[in-house]
Write a structure and sequence with these properties.
Blueprint lengths: L1 E6 L3 E8 L2 E12 L2 E9 L5 H17 L4 E5 L3 H9 L3 E4 L4 E5 L3
Parallel strand pairs: 4-5
Antiparallel strand pairs: 1-2, 2-3, 3-4, 5-7, 6-7
Length: about 100
């Protein structure tokens, strides 16, 4: 799998591809100071739970390559909270369910 940017800007749009076939998409929204927020992550229904973990690892690798210092995710479920914790995200704001991942650039 790999990530391809399809639109640049304050809300940059990306697709996730496997063997040139689109299997997902997401937005990285600019929050200032180089911080991005992951929004609207969607994956094909055929992607397994293990595949979702791989998608997050792929996104984390991508932001490291792009030298993005921090990425934020707003969680909407306990299942996502568990996944984010597993992927080394930290709960920044419990009230807003905001998680952050800091990149060691």
């Amino acid at each position: 799998m790999y990530i391809e940017q399809i639109q640049a800007g304050e809300e940059s749009r990306y697709v996730i591809k496997k063997d040139r076939e689109e299997v997902g998409r997401f937005i990285l929204s600019d929050q200032g100071n180089g911080v991005k927020r992951l929004k609207n992550l969607q994956v094909d229904g055929n992607v397994t739970k293990t595949g979702i973990l791989y998608v997050f690892e792929l996104i984390q690798q991508y932001i490291e390559q792009e030298k993005i210092p921090e990425i934020q995710v707003k969680s909407h479920s306990q299942e996502l909270d568990t996944l984010l914790l597993h992927q080394r995200f930290q709960l920044k704001d419990k009230k807003d369910h905001l998680w952050t991942y800091h990149v060691n650039c």
